[in-house]
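Lab notebook, page 48
Experiment: co-folding of the full assembly
Goal: obtain a model of how the components sit together before planning crosslinking
Operator: M.T.
Materials (sequences as entered):
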Amino acid sequence: MIFLIIKRILLGFITLFIVSIITFVGTEVLPGDACTTYLERQAFGEQLEACYRRLGLNIPAYERYVSWALNAIQGDFGYSLSGEMPIKDVLGPRIKNSLVLASAAIFIGIPIALILGIITALWRDKLPDVAISTVTIFAMTIPEFISATLLILIIAIWLEWLPGIVIVPTDVSFLELLPNIILPVVAIAMIMTAHMARMVRSSVIQVMASEYVQMAILKGVPYWKMVFKHVLPNALLPAINVVALTIAWLLGGVVVTEVVFNYPGLGRLVIESISNRDLPTVQALAIILASIYVSINLLADLLTLMLNPRLKTLQIRK
Amino acid sequence: MTDIIQKVKNLSIGFRSKKGEEILILKNISTNIKKGETVGIVGESGSGKSTLALAMMGYVKHGLYTVGGECEFNSSNLLKMKSKDLEKIRGRKIAMIPQNAGQALTPNLKIGYQIDEALQLHSDLDERQREKKISELLNKVRLPSPETIALRYPHELSGGQQQRVAVAMALAGTPDLLLLDEPTTGLDVTTQAHVLELLNFIAKDTGTSMVYVSHDLGAIAQVSDRIIVMYSGEIVLEGPSRDILKRPIHPYTHGLLKSIPKLSLAGLPDSMPGSQPQPGTIQSGCSFFDRCNFSDENCKNNSPKLEFLKDLNTSVRCFNYEKLVKENQVSQTVNKIKNKSQDKEILNLSEVSISYAKQKLLDQIFNRISDDNPTVKDININIKKGETIALVGESGSGKSTILKSIAGLLRTKDGLIKFDKNRNLSSDLKERDPNDLRIIQLIFQNPDESLNPNHTVEEIIAQPLKLYFGLKGEELKKNIIDLLQKVRLGEFYTSRYPRQLSGGEKQRVAVARAFAAKPDIILCDEVTSALDVSVQAAVLNLLQQLKEDFGTTYIFVSHDLAVVRAISDRVAVLYQGRLCEVGPSNDVYKFPSHPYTEVLLGAVLEPDPDIKPKLVAEDIVEERPPEKGCSFQGRCSRIVGDICKKEIPPWQLTDSGNAIRCHIPIKELQKEQF
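Observation: model returned without errors.
Model output:
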């Protein structure tokens, strides 16, 4: 078991290493570099040389990679080009904002998704299922830029209940941010909840049709006890991995939604730094997003392993 | 008299087809279960026997509904009862032992909890008493060290142990009626015999009534007092067990009993033509009409009623049962198979070892397998052209593993597999040339999985013809039709998809595909296990016919020893991947000499209440073969001393040509038989 965890962690680091090399090489082979972008038309002669020296671009690429990687491990990603400020200072508030958005969506979305999924499965083909399933399929199929725009139109413009666009500084306090995030959270949670509810529904239906559930019924186990003891633990196990992917997707910044609402999160930063050719920031973002995905998937796998007695003993025996 | 415990009255259960028609699974069933009696319900798949058993608990599967009739228990109709009241009957008054305990135990709950749950629901014992009761129950079903078993999860037990847990769980509520749905199907022969013996003991010990549902007349014969035979959703015959097995007066039962291979008879039994009609088939006459040998015009137009014959104490649904009453016993005729083996060697396995061990990194680099105790070891068999050799043994004996290696699906660790004296087949599949692949063909157990559901029969059979012989156009078509006729399927089958065929027809297509390659050797991996009994005989007869026509060699793997007896010339008995005995079928079956062969044959269940299985050894499951000594030491009842634990036994030859691997001198082994 411990051996397995160590193995998975090592594999995670290898993944991150490969991602870092790919992004570094990628930014390196692109025509032009930070200095030509920064200096624009003055990018020649003395000024260019000076810029190269200042940013350390005159030393060979592999040396630059090593020193960049060593600094990155310690949390120092160098300087952002556009604002000429340390990247970690740029990232900090953005990560915080994305976390706020993601956790709000998670805390609202996951319980609702579970409840809706279980209700639709237990009342399969009956009225509650037909009604909820119609709504969830509808919510699933509308792209978020449309639902977000509609939300702005109805709630913010017609009813004037909430601000439609987030126009606060990036490093605003949580309480001030709160009214601003309601609409984005609703937009994200709608699509995410719908997806997860469908998944939970099919998983519960599958377990309900299993022989062990039939056996529990024939044993005289009361309905709700059967649902909680025999059905849900087995039905929700496969859901863990899907939930994990959803969380990673949320933390990685929900690009479209953030752009529509002008929300200062990681997703918008990705778009901004790409259009500004702010390569050091793009590199830092790639690494951070990759590590979020790797670590959340690792956590989900370990959780599944711990909760599923079948996998647990298999691993111990091997 | 109130000795009737469950009364089924005019019960019909059905479903709605996509077109909205009502299709009946059970048609007007009436029967009574008496106190303390064991009733066997027998029928082929799709005959409605499981639906009937579940209805006796007031349970109707999702998608089915009760069309009419009732299941009366304690003078209340279970099918109309509220689920609150049903919860008090299920598990407490009527309990179920499921077919596949491995699937029927909840995977995330410990064994102890699952039994405790039944006790909590159906008894008023306190926690300490319940704990004691769990141990008692596990002890009663003869599980070793109950305390540790209770702490395990279902997947940590073997199939036989899981089945015993299911029995313990059913007994927890001390029910008056036990319903058993194929409780031993899927278990090894020896385990099956032990579980049946346990069930018989429990029936006597507790006086519980039992309803035993099975397709296996052998198992039914061992437990039931009364038998109900079902066909196409109807009861066709019902009466005392002995009479039904010895003198069946319904043509279906008669034919069924004739088509089951017996241990005592070498040769292939007669087969019954056709197959059971699909539910929803509209028939004006008797549902068995087109398969019946005794039918006449009347049977075609009118459907017979279930008629109670007082003097025989039997109910029968047939116009012509009197013809069968006159026939005293089922006289089984068998077609003795001719031994077609020539003196020419076709496949030679020498010192073959096969390992499933995970390769270490270093071994992967050097492309070698290192395992001191491989799954299969020291296999030496010399197979002659035209013979049928059978590999038998329980699950885990390595019989399928050896087939895989011969087919090239699994690489051998050591040893040589040689075809026709000079072609080396020990290599991987990837290294074999097309001709090496052509000469060996496989027929799998389950045609549902081995036939591509998106290909028509024509495409399935065309593939080997195109691949090995490059046939095209008219010639290809002609060959396909030829092959279909050889397996007794008409030309019109070409455009059908596997799902449009019955189980027997699918397996015929799989046979045709194997023969399309014109192979020298065909490997048959449990080819009849997934088929109904009445279809099994037909497929066996077909295989034998094709073999005589083409001179093919069969390597036949089966867990069913009676089937092996019927078709094979020679038998190799395997335990834990090591050979125990190799010899001509006649000798192995008449004088089982190796202690393991004796155990295996003793456990076979025959559809005859007078032949009881002999339980020689415990049905322990060993996970790995022993490191040293005889492979069977762990379960052998005739260990002669330390030598069995230390030394691999030598091969001993009998006069009739049996080779036996045992430390007991051959004379002594054979003496025991008489």
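Interpretation: Residues 43 and 246 of chain B are 17 Å apart (CA to CA).
Next step: discuss with group before ordering constructs.
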